[in-house]
Amino acid sequence: MGNIEKISKVKGETLSSEHYFQSLLEQAYMSGMLSDIQLEKIQFDCLSLLAKQTERYNNGDSSSIRVEAAQNLLDSIMFTIGVWLKTYHNPDEAVATVQKDGMYALYQNGRERIDRLIKSTKILHSSIVGNLVQTENVFYRSTIVDGIKGFFKLYYPEFAAQEIHITADYLVHHPMERLLGIEFIQKYLECIYYENLFCAQFSAEDVHHLLCGYDEHYEQLLFNIYEPVLSAAIGCILSSRDVHRLEMAPSSIKILCDLFCGKTRTEILKILMEAVGQLSELMDLTEPLKRYLSGSLPQIAAAIENAVLLQTLDRVFILPKYPENNPKLIVSFGEKMDDEKYRKVLEEIMQCRYLADKKALIKSEIHSLADLEDILLDAELYKEETLDILSELSPAEIAALVKKHPLPSALDRYGLRESQITLCECLQKYLAALPAKQQDLMKQAVAMLDSTEV
Asked: Within 10 Å of residue 350's Cβ, how many Cβ atoms?
């Protein structure tokens, strides 16, 4: 009978993670644990503490401050007290402490706890940065390294303990509690730590190829890296593929479709839990990391259930791609002639009355695609003349010009010269006039074009 937990009058689930102290007072008052007189005394003590903090904020000057600044100071005080009261397992014990101890003592305890949290969170951050997964995704490093450093640089727990300052663009996989200040950063970094720890089980190259399967331009996308990595690892386990390489095959998707088809979300979750158990044994994962993986499974189970219905399971279990193996077309625009010679050639072309004479000059004097591009833009050619000149270029040269001069949107046209718009339209008209098969080949050439050296 000694193990029976004492029933609390204040239910923990009714308390706000963000505004813990305020919600604790509200619930304690509603449950009868605090009387009107006690609540008024607590409020008066908080205002007295605010007066002291205002004086410190003004460097000893007790003159008034802006309402917004005073509210911010009061929010900081309430947050700091809440940080301390959260250390009590039972909310009723926290209420008893509020009744027994003065606000100043609670505030001091909260400040000391915040200082300890700052110190431990900085250590955690250093550990993460020292073993950060190598990825080309710009949001991952900019948030985890630079963003968190920015938080510690700006964080001022004495007068703004509840502030976060950063946006934390890169999102973690687990749903985050609504937290403030150092509590948010600590929880955020704990999630990052486990996600980073799991992704580090695989080579950066294999993770890169997996994410290329997610999107070949994933470097600029704001998404959570850990979820496709965990899903791929589970997919490898369930389809008997090499989990260390994260390398599923198209046949894996068929196996997984057959496995999950007709299953309820509860049944899917059970299958995923068993797979994580196998994964944990195979990779010798720690219990805390295993718990974090297990906490991710309800979201993945929901995604699988939806994907089975929509027949998009390949967007949950990503197949890796290897862009470096794709054929590439490299076209050089070549060297430009010197400015004086170019001006002379351009004047001669513009003085020609007939297109045949213009083309003859171009063939005899223009020896690089870079110079031809300039002539097409500067020689004030009619559209029919431009199209005629384009018809004598090689497919690779046309592809290079199309790549560099795509048809602009209505908004983009405002920043372009009229000759640039004309060239874009002529290129598109030239492509449209090609037979369907040649159009497809030209589109492939443009897609294969790796670089154009200007």
From this structure: 13
192: how many CB neighbours lie within 10 A of its CB? 23
Please state whether 262 falls in left (phi above 0), alpha (psi between -120 and 50) or beta: left
Residue with tokens 């993460």, as numbered in its chain: 128
Q: Check residue 5 and give its pLDDT.
A: 54
Range with the lowest mean pLDDT among 151-165, 182-196, 314-328, 369-383? Answer: 314-328
Q: Which helix (H) or strand (E) holds 86?
A: none
Enclosing H/E stretch for 240: none
Q: Is 205 left (phi over 0), alpha (psi -120 to 50) or beta?
A: alpha
Helical segments of 352-394, H only: 355-365, 369-378, 383-390
C-alpha distance from residue 87 to each of 96, 104, 306 (Å): 13, 17, 40
* CA 142 – CA 137 distance, rounded (Å): 9
Q: How far is CA 133 from CA 98, 176, 284, in A?
A: 44, 22, 19
**Residue with more model confidence, 324 or 135:** 135
* 137-141, 232-236, 279-283, 442-446: range with lowest mean pLDDT: 442-446
CA–CA gap between residue 22 and residue 223 (Å, rounded): 35
- pLDDT, one tens digit per residue, over 304-347 is 999 999 999 999 999 999 987 766 667 788 889 999 999 999 99
Q: Can you read off the two tokens belonging to residue 350?
A: 């513009």
Would you state the structure tokens that stand for residue 383, as one six-digit string? 């559209």
Helix (H, G, I), strand (E, B) or coil at 135: coil
Q: H-helix or E-strand containing 249?
A: none
> Confidence band (pLDDT; 50, 70, 90) for 53?
very high
Check: CB of residue 245 under 8 Å from CB of residue 239: no
Q: pLDDT tens digits, residue range 11-23?
A: 999 999 999 999 9
Q: At what angle do helices 369-378 and 395-404 cross, to 10 degrees?
A: 60
For residue 161, the 8-state DSSP code is: T
Per-residue pLDDT tens digits for 258-290: 999 999 999 999 999 999 999 999 999 999 999
Widest Cα–Cα separation across the chain: 107
**Pairing mode of beta strands 329-332, 449-453:** parallel
Domain ranges of the chain: 1-153, 204-323, 329-453
**In which residue are the tokens 């979300």 written?**
265
Residue 250: both structure tokens together:
């198209």
Query: ∠291-294-297 over CA atoms, to 5°?
Result: 160
Spatial contact of 426 and 387, defined as CB atoms under 8 Å apart: yes
Average pLDDT, the chain: 92
Report the length, in residues, of the chain: 454
